[in-house]
Endonuclease III (Parvularcula mediterranea), 247 residues
Amino acid sequence: MQAPLTFAVDNRLPDILERVTQLLPRLRPQTATNPLDQLLYGVIAQGLSSAGATACYRRVKERFPSFSALRDAEPGLIEGLMVGAPSAALKAQAIPEILRLIDEAFGSLSLEPLSRLDQELALRFLTRLPRVTEEIAASVLRFTGTDRLVLHIDKDVARPLRRLGLAEQGAPLSALPRQLIERSPVAWRSEDFAGLSRGLTRVADRFCHQGRPDCASCPLANLCPAAEKAEAKVVTFPFGKARKTAA
């Protein structure tokens, strides 16, 4: 067991969350999503655009409206419905196998039992299924009806995190979620972390570039210890000497 970290709660985080949330589009109310639909959609969607994945999954569901019918379907029939999908044959083989493994593990075609597992066990179960990545597994757990925390930080989100001092500079990506959680308010829930992650993705894309960051336009500049400060201007005096004064 890892020793607990001892980071103090960073009081800037509520303000950071509020600011980055302003960069996000307003979300439309969403209808409840079956976690099993989310899982199968995630497998099909790999390598496809959102529109392409939605159209592909709709064709599969129209042909096999129940999970039991899809579990028992011939892979060749499923493959024929995934026109234009990369690795269609492999995905078509994986989908019935995923459903069979879930049925065998839980005695039904449902992911509801995942809500009774802790995060690590739930992720481990999902990622052992054919063609299910950690990203797909994390998205599925958001639909299991529990307020579990699933926080994944990629290299783009890590850049503003490190510059803000919310994660150690030399720490590997795998350590950053835990470091951020240790610094966060105890009242934060999973949706707060999700909003922060999405907002920092926007910050990284629009302002906090890998090369020269656009600190002057960044909404987090006055909270960031790494933000570039205004350069000193040279003021010339009539006595022939010059001195620097802060802008």
Notes: Residues 1-5, 230-247 have pLDDT under 50 and may be disordered. The first strand starts at residue 233 and ends at 236. DSSP finds eleven helices and two strands in the chain.
